Amino acid sequence: MENKSLKQVKVQGERWFPAETTFAEEMKELWGDWYCDSEVTKLRSVLLHRPGKELEGITEENFSEYRFRGAIDAEKARKEQDALADIYREHNVEVHYVKGQREDKPNAMFLRDLVFMTPEGAIICRPAIPARRGEEKAVAQTLASLGVPIIKTINGEGFFEGACAMWVNRETVVIGTGSRANEAGASQVEAELRNIGVKKIIKTQIPYGSIHLDGYMNMADTNKLAVFPWHLAYDCAKALMDAGIELIEVTDIQELKEGMALNFVTLEPGKVVMPSGNPNTKKLLEAHGIEVLETELGELMNGWGSMHCMSLFLKRDA
Q1: pTM of the model
Q2: C or N terminus of the chain, fewer CB within 10 Å?
């Protein structure tokens, strides 16, 4: 009898049982305190890429080759971003920087394009423009060194940039397709979001005159969305309003396109930092109860991006 019992143990081996805790439940202990399911809750941590040598070769003769709108004074650009970082720190936001970025990638400062952050970690994106591909490697390495989980990397035929998605709340995300996100990329993002509990995906087309959602919509408060109405698709607008979102219609085209007035960052519900030089948009936001801070980003905006493009939110309050 004893020999039979030993034989059974030997055949069956050790009995192992899996832990039944979810990834989200143990993430903070095993990985770190990273979380984002909002564009507006209190901002706690961001990742930036401080402009480096890659900007020093952008001149009046070649800026169009890099899809810039003008030449850039690299040192002035650095000072502008440093001032933005100081505003973050003044609001108790931890600022991290990308390490080891390539020096032949002048658009690398626009981190929102390279990652879409979620409650369980980062979705590493795949840029649409071939000249930008490869930027995401240094970002992924930096995230890994910080302990931010990478839950998906866009692959196959897909391409997707993080600014083509926008959190509305924990269960709702807007995903746009267009010149910077195709269906193959968007479907990968949608599948990953549904896997972590997102129940509603609001799908929309990003119009020809914009490349990312944050060119014509941005959350300024828990239920307030600043939009350029002439680029906002009706079905998307209706779905947002049905979700209880108030649309603040910003129609000053000069401020929208040249001043990038909607490319602001919400520091906490009802408080934003935006590029200076957009008085009409500032007044409109304030009329809707939004507190507005300003900082000069005129040099950086020659890269066709502003503070929202540059700031990867690593942690916001749940």
Answers
A1: 0.94
A2: N
Distance, CA of 120 to CA of 163 (rounded, Å):
18
Nearest CA-CA partner of 105 in 60, 57, 69, 59: 57
Across 133-249, the runs of DSSP E, i.e. the strands, are 150-153, 165-169, 172-177, 200-205, 217-221, 224-227, 246-249
Structure tokens at 46: 């961001």
Across 15-137, where does the E strand assignment appear? 43-48, 94-97, 115-118, 121-124
Are the C-beta atoms of 244 and 194 separated by less than 8 Å? no
Q: How many helices (H) and strands (E) does the chain have?
A: 9, 15
Q: What pLDDT, on a 0 to 100 scale, did the predictor assign at position 1?
A: 47
How many C-beta atoms lie closer than 10 Å to residue 182's C-beta? 17
DSSP 89-142: HHTT-EEEE--S--TT-TTTT-GGGTEEEETTEEEE-B-SSGGGTTHHHHHHHH
CA–CA separation, 128 vs 169, rounded Å?
27
C-alpha span between 221 and 267 (Å, rounded): 10
**Domains (range + CATH), the chain:** 32-316 (3.75.10.10)
12-21, 114-123, 256-265: range with lowest mean pLDDT: 12-21
Q: Is the dihedral of CA 178, 67, 158, 51 positive or negative?
A: negative
Token pair of 133, please? 């591909």
| pLDDT tens-place string over residues 125-151 | 999 999 999 999 999 999 999 999 999
Environment class of residue 184 by beta-carbon count within 10 Å: exposed (0-12), middle (13-18) or buried (19+)?
Answer: middle
Q: 93-130 burial, b for 16+ CB within 10 Å, e for fewer? A: bebbebeebeeebbbbbbbbbbbbbbbbbbbbbbbbee
Q: Would you state the structure tokens that stand for residue 153, as one six-digit string?
A: 């990397």
Q: How far apart are CA 55 and CA 104, in angstroms?
A: 9
Reported as a pLDDT band with limits 50, 70 and 90, residue 188 is very high
